[in-house]
From TrEMBL:
The keyword Ribosomal protein does not apply. This is Uncharacterized protein. Keywords: Membrane, Transmembrane, Transmembrane helix. It comes from the Bacteria. The chain crosses the membrane at residues 36-59, 71-93, 154-178, 190-208, 256-281, 329-346, 353-378, 415-432, 444-467, 479-499, 511-531.
Amino acid sequence: MSRPRPPVPGFFQHLLLLWGLRLHLGLNQGPGKSRLLAVAAFLGSSAPGVLLGLSFFKLMRLPLIVHSNVWPYFILNLLCFVTAATWVTWPLLSAGVDDHSELSRYAAFPISPFRLLMGSTVASLFEPRALVFYAPLTGAAVGYASRHRLASPWLAAVLYVLFALFCAAWSRVGLYTVINVLRAKHSARIMGGGMVAFLVAASFIPPIDTSWLTSVGEAGVGALDMSLIINAAVALSQVPPGFFGDGLGQLAHGRVGIALLEAFGLLFFTAMGMTVAYALLMRFHRQAGGRSGGDRGDGKDSDPFATTGSRFDTLLRREVLDLWRNPRARLLAAVPFILAILLKLLSGRDLFVYLLGGSADAWVMGGLSIYGAVVIASTFSQNTFAYDGHGFAVFLAAPMSLADVLRAKNRVQGVAALGMAVLVGAFYRVYFGSGTLVDFLCSMVAVAAVVPMLLAAGNFLSLYFPVKFHASLKRRDRVPLTASMLGILAASVGCMPFGHALRAAGKDGPGWQSVAFIAAFAVLHFGVYLATRPLAMRLLEQRREVVLRAVTRE
């Protein structure tokens, strides 16, 4: 007698399974890994969201805000727009290509592709970065509701859920757009052409008027032309992300019907986002077809290693070619320039000048340069044995010392990060037409202080938290939260001299003493890197089999 077939799991069962697998893969959990440490890392990475939420909760309860007819709606609508924009652009800012793989990873599961996409989208709402992203809006909304009686509180909760789903859906659109570009045959040309087109288009858009900053002065916000704030609040409420903030305002005035219409609007645009995301995802998997991703540019018969003079030079050239051909590196290299264009388009430098005075260019140029260096150095140095696919297995089979391999990787990643910072700093000087030689040198020595710390930390993180990275972009295992937090800590330590020097300079701007101070720490950090590298090399020989199993597992 045959046994009856077990029932197919429902959507919520699939969702629980998906969350469990995401947690297991995301924490890189296996034998010997501490679940307590993994939970602590999750809570630690989500902790900033609590502080942000409480801050905006208190802000919305200030008497000046509570008794105003404009400021509560402006703050809510602005937070709605910023939250949605952060969600949608995050795949670009972080070059995130790790979540797209679930359709292929779980292909054998009894689940339809669309249900898997839905479950993956809902599951993304409970990741640490998501908790941080929508914490300010959550705190502001709760603070607003605590001071204003809402006609239908249940509808406010529905609006909040729909807004979160709207952000998650369009974040998937951004993610799958990015992976389709990375997977394209001519990805480098597409990204380069897109950035040039963006630069040209931005040059025709008039910058935002920031003259009101100087009119505020010592008079405070009361000196502001409130018509500007009112028009901004209305404009923000008329775009889909603003439906949530405007809906809360409508409920506070007893207009349940209008709030209900805005809930349907959020539902409609969420469905539209899911439809576009599903189409982009299926397009990616149809075109994957075994190609290795990106225009590798190696169709010619010329041998790139024909002119190398030594084995170490060959290793260096191989690492340079792998990094150059990596689609993720191309995307990361484009991000600081896009941020600089957006900064000028939104007149962001004027705001920094108002807040920071003569130090504004050093802060902004240094921030963009450090960001460009950090995303290149940390992304590849913290997974240095796996970002090129199965390349580590080739090194193990070759008659060479793994210490040379590590030195070559460190050198290429460090030089790439420094070169990226120089390009970003030069672009800022030419594009904005501002910034002194001292500002530029402060930025460059700040990068020189950060990169050694990233390389030193990356060597150990690569040995103790190795993850598999597929060069074809078909699948990328997640970097464990513990490794991410340790990497952030290393970057923070590297940035501390730059931050301290500019804070000491105040609004007068940095001087040559600031450059000397940061340069001294750059030398110190380089010494730390040199002192820790021999230990990393010895550990590499001891853990070579562990690393190999981790980066080649299927």
